[in-house]
Amino acid sequence: MPASSPWLAFVLAALAAIGPFSIDTYLPAFGAMATDLGASQLQIQQTLTAYMATFAFMVLWHGALADHFGRRHVLIAGSVLFALASLVCALAPSIEWLWVGRALQGMVGGAGMVVGRAVIRDLFDGAHAQRLMSRVMLIFGVAPAIAPVIGGLLLAAAGWRAIFFFLAFFGTLLAFLTWRFLPETLLAEHRHPLHPVLLWRAYRRVLGSGAFVLLSAAAAFNFNGFFLYVLSAPAFLMQHLGLSAQEFGWLFVPAVVGMSAGSALSERVAGRWHVRRTVAIGMTIMATAAAANLLVATLLPPGLPWSVLPIVLYTFGMALSMPSVTLLALDLFPSHRGLASSCQSFLQVGVNSTIAGIFAPMLWYSPLTLAAGMAGFLTLGGIGFIAWCRRAGGCVR
């Protein structure tokens, strides 16, 4: 498949969509799963933690494996193993088995995201890379919108186990699409050995880079301003807004409209705006959204559409800035793009898993605490980006 093929962006976006599908699809089923398995809501919430913890650990290795074995082999193997792990979840007789299945899903669920970024940088540089990254995010942005809708429909039609059978089918389909449409982008002479000493030195070099850590932290905290609402969706939508399990689209569809618009603008300005300017404008938009969210939560009762509109603006700014932040970090290590992508994902998902296990349950008790959480995470992301800018000689060029 040529690098310019429209299938390339679609396949890369579908591979990255394993993450939101693994999380968002089963959110409407939390209540049904708790009843069927005789588990508490906290135990069901910990299925997210089980997924995110193994996800965060394994993303450290997907890139190194792809740098050694090649991109296609890792992507195909990861998709097949994800399908098998989904079957474990679908057949789980107890909450403990569901934890096991979710942990197995997490071990392979990050391969598409990590290796897909490396594929983009294998093929393109500069504005071309930003355009493809933005196009991937534009297509990928559909996943968080349709995943909970699909989950709600499957729950109503066939019960919560059907959601995991669907994920098993999705993993199988991804393995086929990768085999059929995705070329190998890493030449044999550019591959790296899996020697422990060499790997240790490479990881130490990447994770020891202050610039890399600051950029990765900025991306992680910015994303978590929205991810907090994803993890808290059952409480935010059903308890505070009074919606049903089939109405999760009220959050995810508008949020993805914002994300898609931001990705489209990022693609349009690639090569016209300096990447630092793109990030700065995106973060200014997110700050405006976070301030509006605090005002709405303070002054108005929870309701539609006002409780959701600031989230739409936030995702617009997030999607505008995210491709540029990602590429700025990866460009620091052009000879180890797979490994650098792994480290970037590890730092981001490490923060995500902390939210899943600790902060989301602490903040989902009211719209105001959720709005404060969004503002707090964005503040941390802004501090990280500004600190990187000061090291690099300024934010806007």
Looking at this protein, list some descriptive labels.
single chain; 397 residues; mainly alpha; 18 helices; 80% helix; globular
In short:
With 397 residues, this protein is mainly alpha-helical.
SSE layout and pairings?
Elements: H1 6-16, H2 18-24, H3 30-37, H4 41-69, H5 71-90, H6 95-109, H7 111-123, H8 126-140, H9 142-158, H10 161-181, H11 196-207, H12 210-231, H13 233-240, H14 249-269, H15 275-299, H16 309-330, H17 337-363, H18 367-392
Overview of this structure, please?
- This protein has helices spanning 6-16, 18-24, 30-37, 41-69, 71-90, 95-109, 111-123, 126-140, 142-158, 161-181, 196-207, 210-231, 233-240, 249-269, 275-299, 309-330, 337-363, 367-392.
- With 397 residues, it is mainly alpha-helical.
- 57% of the residues are buried.
- The mean pLDDT is 84.
